[in-house]
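A reminder from the course coordinator: this example appears on the midterm review sheet, so study it carefully.

Given structure:
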């Protein structure tokens, strides 16, 4: 599922996975590494996501003894929860069609 805003994907599976990785690793750079993504690409995706929301999904701390990092805001946590709930409900509702599509894929 993707949510578009002004021709841009405001929210989709890649951004949700990146949010989950930031939540797990505590920084955009570590999240990017875990997803085999460049830091620049991850930063641009987070910036695009945060700009498309009423309130940001992440906040970053710069520098410091531990080198800074990023954490999810309650909005970021809610995005993950809602998105994964939608996926589960859609998979259950469309199980017959998903099975039919799966049968069309080469093994």
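Designed residues:
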């Amino acid at each position: 599922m993707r949510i578009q805003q002004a021709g841009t994907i405001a929210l989709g599976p890649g951004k949700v996975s990146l949010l989950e990785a930031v939540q797990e690793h505590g920084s955009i750079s570590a999240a990017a590494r875990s997803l085999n993504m460049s830091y620049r690409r991850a930063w641009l995706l987070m910036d695009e996501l945060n700009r498309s929301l009423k309130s940001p999904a992440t906040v970053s701390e710069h520098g410091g003894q531990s080198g800074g990092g990023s954490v999810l805001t309650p909005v970021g946590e809610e995005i993950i929860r809602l998105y994964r709930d939608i996926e589960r409900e859609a998979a259950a509702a469309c199980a017959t069609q998903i099975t039919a599509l799966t049968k069309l894929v080469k093994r």
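The beta strands are 3-5, 8-11, 58-62, 68-72. The chain has a mean pLDDT of 92.
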